[in-house]
Design a protein that fits this description.
Chain A: It is found in: Nucleus. The structure holds two protein chains of two kinds. Chain A is α/β, with parallel strands linked by helices. In chain A, about 65% of the residues lie in helices and about 5% in strands. Chain B contains 23 helices and eight strands. Chain B has a five-stranded parallel beta sheet with strand order 2-3-4-1-5, sandwiched between helices. Chain B has a three-stranded antiparallel beta sheet with strand order 6-8-7. The chains are: A alpha/beta, B alpha/beta. Bound molecules: adenosine-5'-triphosphate and magnesium ion (MG). Adenosine-5'-triphosphate binds next to helix 3 and helix 10 of chain B.
């Protein structure tokens, strides 16, 4: 480097900026691209994936908002009301009498703790927007003692919600008497309120612009009430209740289990200082149903999880955590996994884009298409001439691909409305042969052709004895579902169903409706009461009776209603057969469907213990070192020390003699090193071996396989059993 | 009531006014004033006032000091998470805002005394200064020298100063075992029914006559006095139900004098309130809303209705397993959970004295191993030991459905360990595996039998068949 100075001196050269830029940290895209062969392509896939995810995310957010809207609105109402009651305590007798109570909104949210953050975030945003600028949320883990709780509340109130000019005046206040929290809070509150009312509207301030009342309430949100220690809570409420005259306080308790926790945690004398109102949020299963409805059961997003994948995700939800948040994260993981591992996922996008992209596919990618199982199946069904063309000419294939992709999109557009119709029809049947939730039916349809299943069979039989009004309402719902459909098939179906419905209604008009109704319903009732739906009967018996009925009916002459009903059912059946074919039968379905349920389970439902044992018994799995490869299960001396020690300890009882263990270890290692000729070196080696052994044992202890014990000298206790 | 004594040094009218403002506490006020003597005179160094909740301790003491305009500092000990806050508030009240500057970060009593003496040199007391320590029982949990120090603070700071301690707890429970200066004791007895009536009738509603409100209070006390004598609570209940009481008046169906009619209207309502609001089965806001919306209070749903908790499938089983582990003796596990448990004689198995007692004794702690072993044998499908299963245990702990026993809870560890080690040194006990066992985490199930039965019903598990007590 040169300087243009003629004098001698010391020059400082800062490293120039570009050199530093070279070692930039890897971002998500680099990780995504990493390890795949075609860089340009995977970048494109990454972009598509991100775009798609953005869409899906905004969809989930709107679901989230809608879901809690009602309850949050009523909560806001409650906050406003209690604020106005604080204002009116001079005039209003009831408000004055209850002035010493702190209003509390108990928000019962269910046990899915991970989902609560979102709710609280939107809650405090809304509160800040329309009720008061003074909202603080605290979590139990920040508040091991009352002191910290008070500190947190004070800090967040005085520090965050104010602008800079405000801070200058307010910082010296708490500084001086930083100890006495609520007194300084009172002082701060007074100045804050005064400032806000005297401020000119021209000034840029978030809090005066909106017209809050003159005394906006101070809202403290305790996010996880259960996790707070009862002692802290008790003291906090006692302290706050002494300031109810000066401060319009309001608490929001986030409760996961049920309101009786409040009673359990707090003594009677403390709960009498609170006036609690309960707000019960909708259940998380309902939330999940809406999310699935909006993200999965729609042709809007080209990405589709396969049946297995959905089962894994829903299983995690139902069996493990009830967390919608985790479900969405799981879905996002599938999305990433799909775009990462499936090169043809470039085509997993909107129809027009997909068609355009098909044109730009390279020869390699065409080859990949040719290798898709679904495509091979498709080719086999073609004429030999066509087959040759498809396998040799890229141009021809491209044309076909466009057609197939369009077909796939059309398939989806028809699939979901028909699925919903089928669900509407079958979800009211006794014992829910096809599942109570639409997601169950959906999984069935993804896994196999639904009309080939026994459950479908029995559902159709039950449909055949449906009473008129039930059938009518179901048909009405189907019509509503199909109404927005745009494809030709759906419009046809709509017309047909509408027609059937009209005819059903007209039957009522001129046939003697009462007799008919009685006739039909009587029969249906007969069947149900005979079997005793209340009683426990197995499906088999039900079917038998149904069959009998069918036979007996065949002999009788059928009423016009029965004929019409059969026609309807037949039509529905034909719709199902036409549109609810399983996705695997669609050529190119691999483009849209993520099928890697194994990977998903592996990542989302980790089994730390099994992996640990795997690593220790079969180090090859993780180290990929050829020397370690052996199938016999014998201890390879080349394995890491900890593996050897682990293997040896499996052969011991509950207490392990350290010396014996060391001996065994040495034997294994010496066997590996072969003969050890130099006796002078022997000592030295022994020491090293000893050290290695100690280290391996302490590693095992760290992993929780053994622990030291005082029961017997020079022994350690084993903590696991079996598992060779 | 005795004729109010003459209290020299205090304005006669003011004392009279005070007595009127604080009904039913004339004797106590008289005694206090007598103890205090004239404002300039020294008073007894410390006074200890005790009485049940809401007997007017804080209200009377503060009212007295405020009305007579005596220099005083009121500090609630709940708020004093450290002694520093206590000192600071006292100094602030007596010497203004600049006085706390010289207080070090974590002051000791000696610092406080030093600074107090400095300041009181500058601003000597013309009248007795009073420090009121409310909820004084909490002083016992703070520094050991704090309570004895405050009891004789007059002597330490050499100022005309008196400390008044207020507590719900009798003095005997305060006395440190090293002994200390004994304060004067003053008891605030519970209010009688008549007194309660008199005090409560004070809050008359502006739009109705005082007589009406008084008769309302009379009815209210008739219902609630047998279960509740807490002035605060009663006042709360009075405020909550007054609107309902006035309903016939508003509607013009009754006159203020139709006391029987009014009583007939309100009495069942109050009875219902006793079963719900008072027991916290319904929250007061709901109660109020139900009233104003003219809904029948009878169909208000209590919390006990909402008291079921939705849990993930495995969490349910984990909780069931935890319950079983908590209430079954460990030795019976083999019998319950082993498919082929061989011959365990029934007579052997059922020990008479253990019978039915487990539920009375409450849940017993159990180690994680046992929980998992039972879990795997009751859950009907094969469950991989995944991370999420373990995560559920910790989330059950956060939800307070399971309690993680810390070592202190477990056996009061320091004491216990100490006891053990001394026994060991005395060779009365040979140290067995206790020490090893101590550091394994233990859990306890914190849910009731009804709760767990509801849970097990949802998964179709007949828990009673697995409970030793119900065999
Ligand atoms: N003699 C009285 N006259 C009027 N109101 C009273 C009287 N005694 C008590 N009260 C009212 O009862 C309420 C409770 O009284 P106070 O706070 O003094 O009770 P306390 O004895 O200090 O209870 P705690 O031990 O819980 O602190 C006060 O709000 C006060 O208004
Ligand atoms: Mg008090």
């Amino acid at each position: 480097m040169t300087t243009s100075s003629i004098s001698k001196g010391c020059f400082v050269f800062k490293p120039s900026v570009p050199t530093r830029k070279k070692k930039k940290t890897l971002d998500a895209e680099d990780y995504f691209v990493n390890g795949s062969d075609d860089c340009k392509d995977s970048k494109l896939r990454f972009r598509i994936c991100l775009d798609l995810w953005e869409d899906m995310k905004s969809e989930t957010e709107s679901v989230q908002d809608d879901l809690n809207k009602k309850i949050l609105d009523s909560l806001l109402e409650f906050a406003k009301k209690s604020a106005s009651s604080f204002m009116s305590r001079e005039e209003d007798w009831a408000s004055r009498m209850r002035a010493s109570e702190i209003p509390v909104a108990a928000l019962v949210l269910g046990v899915n703790l991970t989902d609560h953050n979102m709710t609280f975030q939107s809650l405090s945003d809304r509160l800040q927007h329309s009720v008061t600028p003074f909202v603080v949320s605290v979590q139990a883990k920040e508040c091991a003692a009352v002191k910290y709780l008070l500190q947190k509340v004070l800090q967040r109130l005085t520090g965050v919600s104010m602008d800079k000019d405000e801070e200058e005046t307010s910082t010296d206040l708490p500084q001086k008497s930083a100890h006495c929290f609520l007194r300084s809070l009172c002082d701060w509150y007074k100045t804050a309120c005064k400032n806000s009312s005297g401020i000119s509207p021209g000034k840029k301030r978030s809090f005066s612009q909106m017209d809050f009342s003159a005394n906006p309430p101070i809202i403290v949100i305790l996010k996880d009430l259960e996790a707070f220690s009862a002692h802290v809570l008790h003291a906090f409420i006692l302290i706050c209740s002494q300031y109810t005259q000066q401060l319009p306080l309001l608490f929001i308790f986030g409760i996961a289990t049920s309101l009786s926790t409040v009673q359990r945690m707090l003594p009677h004398s403390v709960t009498s200082m609170l006036s609690i109102k309960l707000f019960q949020a909708s259940s998380c299963t309902k939330h999940l149903a809406t999310v699935i409805d909006k993200l999965v059961l729609t042709p809007k997003f080209p990405f589709k999880p396969s049946g297995k994948v959905l089962q894994v995700l829903v299983g995690l939800f139902l069996y493990h955590d009830f967390s919608v948040h985790n479900f969405i994260k799981g879905l996002q993981f599938c999305l990433l996994e799909h775009f990462h591992s499936q090169p043809l996922s470039v085509l997993c996008c909107k129809k027009q884009e997909a068609v355009v992209r098909t044109q730009q596919l390279s020869h390699q990618e065409m080859e990949k298409i040719r290798q898709l199982p679904s495509f091979m199946r498709f080719v086999e069904e073609q004429e030999p001439q066509e087959q040759v063309e498809l396998l040799t000419s890229d141009e021809h294939l491209k044309e076909l691909c466009q057609k197939l992709l369009k077909g796939l999109h059309r398939y989806h557009k028809n699939f979901f409305p028909i699925l919903r119709c089928l669900h509407v029809l079958t979800s009211t049947l006794p014992k829910y042969p096809l599942g109570k939730q639409i997601r169950e039916l959906h999984v069935t349809c993804l896994e196999r052709n639904v009309w080939e299943t026994e459950e479908y069979e029995s559902a159709v039989q039950l449909l055949r004895i449906l009473a008129r009004d039930e059938l009518l309402t179901a048909l009405q719902k189907c019509v509503e579902i199909l109404l927005p459909g745009k494809t030709k098939e759906l419009r046809d179906a709509l017309k047909q169903l509408q027609d059937l419905k009209d005819r059903l209604e007209q039957l009522d008009a001129y046939a003697h409706p009462l007799a008919l109704d009685r006739h039909v319903e009587g029969r249906a009732d007969d069947c149900f009461s005979e079997n005793g739906l209340q009683k426990k009967t197995d499906l088999f018996q039900l079917q038998k009776t149904l069959l009998q009925m069918k036979d007996s009916r065949r002999t009788k002459e059928r009423s016009p209603f029965e004929l019409l009903r059969n026609e309807t059912i037949e039509y529905i059946h034909s719709l199902v057969k036409m549109h609810l074919t399983r996705p695997e039968s669609q050529p190119l379905y691999e483009v849209c469907y993520c099928t890697s349920s194994g990977t998903l389970r592996h990542h989302l439902n980790a089994t730390p213990r099994t992996s640990l044992q795997m690593a220790l018994t079969h180090p090859y799995c993780y180290l990929q070192n050829e020397a370690l490869r052996n199938e016999t299960g014998a201890i390879s001396s080349a394995a890491p020390d900890i593996c050897i020690v682990y293997k040896l300890h499996l052969e011991c009882g509950r207490l392990i003699n350290l010396y014996d263990w060391l001996e065994a270890y040495s034997t294994v290692v010496i066997a590996a090193e072969g003969e050890d000729p130099d006796p002078s070196e022997k000592e030295n080696v022994d020491e090293i071996r000893h050290a290695c052994f100690i280290r391996a044992v302490s590693e095992l202890e760290f992993l929780g396989f053994v622990k030291s014990t005082k029961q017997k000298t020079d022994h350690v206790a084993r903590l696991t059993w079996g598992g060779c | 009531m005795s004729v109010p004594l003459h209290h020299p040094g205090y304005d006669e009218d003011r004392v009279q006014l005070l007595m009127e403002k604080l009904p039913c506490r004339e004797t106590q006020i008289g005694t206090l004033l007598a103890l205090m003597g004239e404002p300039e005179q020294y008073c007894y160094p410390s006074i200890f006032i005790y009485g049940h909740r809401a007997t007017g301790k804080s209200h009377v003491t503060q009212g007295l000091l405020r009305e007579l305009e005596l220099p005083h500092a009121v500090v609630s000990c709940v708020e004093c998470v450290s002694a520093g806050i206590l000192f600071e508030q006292v100094l602030l009240a007596f010497f203004g805002s600049s006085s706390t500057d010289s207080l070090p970060r974590n002051p000791f009593l000696s610092d406080f005394v030093r600074i107090y003496r400095q300041l009181c040199g500058q601003f000597p007391a013309t009248q007795t200064r009073y420090i009121v320590l409310d909820k004084a029982e909490l002083l016992r949990d703070m520094d050991a020298n704090l309570l004895p120090g405050f009891l004789r603070l007059q002597e330490l700071v050499e100022d005309n100063l008196t400390v008044i301690l207020l507590s719900e707890i009798v003095w005997d429970k305060f006395r440190p075992n090293t002994g200390c200066y004994e304060p004067l004791l003053l008891h605030f007895p519970n209010y009688s029914k008549v007194e309660l009536q008199q005090i409560l009738a004070w809050d008359t509603h502006p739009s109705y006559s005082p007589e009406l409100y008084s008769s309302y209070i009379n009815i209210l006390l008739g219902v609630f006095f047998s279960v509740c004598r807490d002035l605060r609570e009663l006042r709360h209940l009075a405020a909550l139900n007054f609107q309902k009481f006035c309903e016939p008046l508003e509607a013009g169906e009754a006159k203020e004098k139709d006391s029987h009619k009014l009583w007939r209207n309100i009495e069942p309502h109050l009875k219902k309130a006793m079963q719900t609001v008072y027991l916290r089965d319904v929250c007061s806001v709901q109660w109020e809303e139900a009233q104003s919306e003219e809904r029948e209070v009878a169909d208000l749903k209590g919390f006990s209705v909402h008291d079921h908790v939705e849990l993930p499938y495995y969490s349910k089983y984990l909780l069931i397993a935890a319950y079983l582990a908590s209430y079954n003796p460990a030795r019976t596990d083999r019998r319950f959970f082993l498919k082929h448990h061989g011959k365990i004689k029934k007579t052997n198995f059922l020990k008479k004295h253990e019978k039915t007692s487990n539920h009375l004794l409450g849940p017993k702690p159990f180690p994680l191993d046992r929980l998992l072993a039972i879990f795997y044998s009751v859950v009907d499908s094969r469950v991989a030991p995944t991370a999420s299963v373990f995560a559920q245990i910790s989330s059950l702990v956060t939800l307070q459905l399971l309690t993680l026993m810390s070592h202190d809870d477990q056996l009061d560890a320091p004491k216990y360990k100490c006891a053990i080690s001394s026994l060991v040194t005395l060779q009365l006990l040979t140290l067995m595996s206790h020490d090893d066992q101590l550091d394994a985490p233990k859990y306890k199930c914190a849910v009731s039998l009804d709760f767990i039965r509801a849970i097990s019903r949802t998964v179709g598990f007949d828990i009673l068949r697995y409970l030793y007590d119900f065999l």
